[in-house]
Structures are given as structure tokens and as C-alpha cells.
Amino acid sequence: MPKKTISFEPADRLKVLPPYLFAEIDRRKRELIAKGKDLVDFGVGDPDIPTPAFIIDALSEGARDPRNHRYALDAGMPVFRESIARWFKKRFQVTLDSGKEILPLIGSKEGIAHLPLAILNPGDVSLIPDPCYPPYRSGTYFAGGVPYILPLLESNGFLPDLSQIPNDVLAKAKVLYLNYPNNPTSAIASKAFFQEAVEFAHKHHLLIAQDAAYCEIGFDGYEAPSILEIPGAKEVAIEFHSLSKTFNMTGWRVGFAAGNEEVIRHLAKVKSNVDSGIFQAIQLAGKKALDEGASAHRANLGIYQRRRDLLIDGLKNMGWEVNAPKATFYCWIPVPPGSTSGEFAAKFLTDLNIVVTPGNGFGAYGEGYFRLSLTLPEERIQEALKRIQKAHRHPHAKADSK
Ligand SMILES: *Cc1c(COP(=O)(O)O)cnc(C)c1O
After folding, report:
1. Distance from C-alpha of 337 to C-alpha of 352, rounded to nearest angstrom
2. Does 219 lie in the same domain as 272?
């Protein structure tokens, strides 16, 4: 064969994705770790607490049964879908048809990213909050859709101002993404806001895709509502749920969509062409988690709430202006004046060996903020507070080398 250089360019749809803003931080992180530095990592939003043992037991029992070794049904095992319906009824007093209004997903990200393929034609508009979880935007691009940005501003409680969307945009818009409790801002939405959104969707013939990945992570007794509690919501909304954050199961890949029957069917059709369902033993473990996970979930919330209080009180005591989140395991904090999100994150990493996520990584409207994730033990939070305190007293102090 003649030797020639072959190169494979990525498709245009990959080229339009925003650049990976964390690449530089990741590089610096690896460099510091290689030098033996002791990093305190508030970066990743991934529970550090293990999956509860009774869920692991259900997985291993399921894994030993050869009936679970074959392809799963695309639409999910009826027993799993029924457990989702029972959980939904108990938690939100919403009745779902387990055969038609529920679709198990290989993690909710999978369904979120595939949804635009099911409902958008090229040129259709997606209304996307900014800052946001990245798959809303990338899923839209993959389907040939056009994102229209809805700024989430602190002055509006990090809720989108639906009245600001121009009519010509609304005429082309097919879907409105919402995510409450919100990543990265930790904002919550009231039922009144969900009601407004549902009315808006009816009026403008839109689908609402509400991402409820954090609906079970609430503090001080706060329990987030489901958008499906709003009368008329099922006609215009689909809600994404996840077992990942609730039961420390991020690596397992299990979640579900609930709501509008037609959209569930369209999404199921996309999925039947790209995947072959969730390993059945994982579905059985998911059923166990939903049926019997209440006390494990409560224990988790206690852990996050203690970490939240430790961190927020510690920062407040040093004069920082921070609000305790009511939900999610994130703290969304304004960057002190004089630096950008990126500069601030780089300085914290280099000077204090503390990893934070710069807000602009979630979109342009995240500029001016940084995110801290509560997915690390209290000792590590204490250690970070010590370093910040020391830097306050000696502004040019560097982290101790370890
Ligand atoms: C973590 C997360 C998800 C989804 O997680 P899965 O593990 O894919 O179920 C969805 N949305 C947001 C905003 C998240 O932070």
C-alpha cells in the first residue's frame, strides 16, 4: 500500500461545540498532583459516599440470575417501571402510567442528550438556560437545532425571564429546558414558577424538558416539587430523574424520563435505534433503591447538610458573602472583585491547591461566579478552610508542600 497521510476531520457538529473550558484546569491539576501536592477538590459533582449496601446486594443477586444476562427490553423491565410509578406517586402525589408515561434511561444524561433527536428538526430552536448543564446545548447541536440562551440572573433568583423571549424566537422554539434544583447555581423553583412555565408552554406550543436530577437533594426539610404536579403539565412536559445523586449511583447509569406520553414514545424510538436497554440487574437494583431507599437517602442528606454548614459558616466567618444552598450539593459563590472566574480558579489552584469550578465553564452568564461541590469529607473541607484562612492573614502565602 502506498504510504499517505490520512486524517479524519471531526464532523461539523462537533466543531460547533463550545471549547472545553476545564481543560487548562485539568492540566494544572495533573501537574500539581504529579508534584505530590495535596489538592482539595471541590470540582467534581460526583458523590464520594459509596452506594448503600442493600442496593449492591440487589445488583449481585440480579447478576447471578442468567435471565438477566441477555438483552434488556428497550423500554425497561415492567417491575422497574412500576416501582418508578409507585415512588412518583408517594413522593409527588402524581399518578403515572408505568407503560406509557415512564421511560428508564441509561442515566438521565443519556435521555437529555437524545431528546432533541426525537423532537427537533434542523433549524428548530431550543430555549436553553445559561449557565447550564452542557448536554442541553450539545444535544441541541447534534440534532441540528439552534440554541437560544436564557440568562439566569441572580436578580431573578436564577430563574429564566420567559417574558423576555422575542416572538420570532418563540415561533421557532420547540423545547424549553429547565433544571431545578439547579446545577450550577443551586437555585430552586417554586410551584408558582413551574405553573407559569406550564402556562407559557401551553400558550406557545412548547415542550418543557425539566431536569430533576437534584430533586432529592434538599436541606432544612426542603423538598423540591416535580413539574408534573402542575395541572396540565403532562400535556407539555417531560421530567428527567436520576438515581445517581439520590443514592450515590453515578457510575451505575440509571435514571428515567416521566411525563408526556407522545414525547416518551418518540424518545423511546430514538433509543431503540441506539441502545438496547439497561442491564437488568441494574434495573432490579434501581427498583430496590426506589422501594426501600428512604433511610439511606435521609442519611445522605444529613451528610451533605453538615458539610454545607461547615463550609458556609467557615467562609462567612472569614467575611465571605455566601448563601447556604437550599438544594443540590453545590455552593455558587460570587468571585471577589478584580478577577474573572477563570483567574480566580487558577489562583486558588496554584496558591492554595484548592480545586473549584469557574462559573464560565457552564456558559457566559456563569462568569463572575465559581462553584464548590460538597462531595468531599468534612476533614477536607476543614483543610480547605484552614488554607483560605491562612491566605487571608498572609495574602501571599502559598499552600504547604506535602
Ligand atoms: C448529574 C446531573 C445529571 C445526570 O446524571 P445521570 O448520572 O446521567 O443520571 C443531570 N442533570 C444535571 C444537571 C446533573 O448535574
Report:
1. 18
2. yes
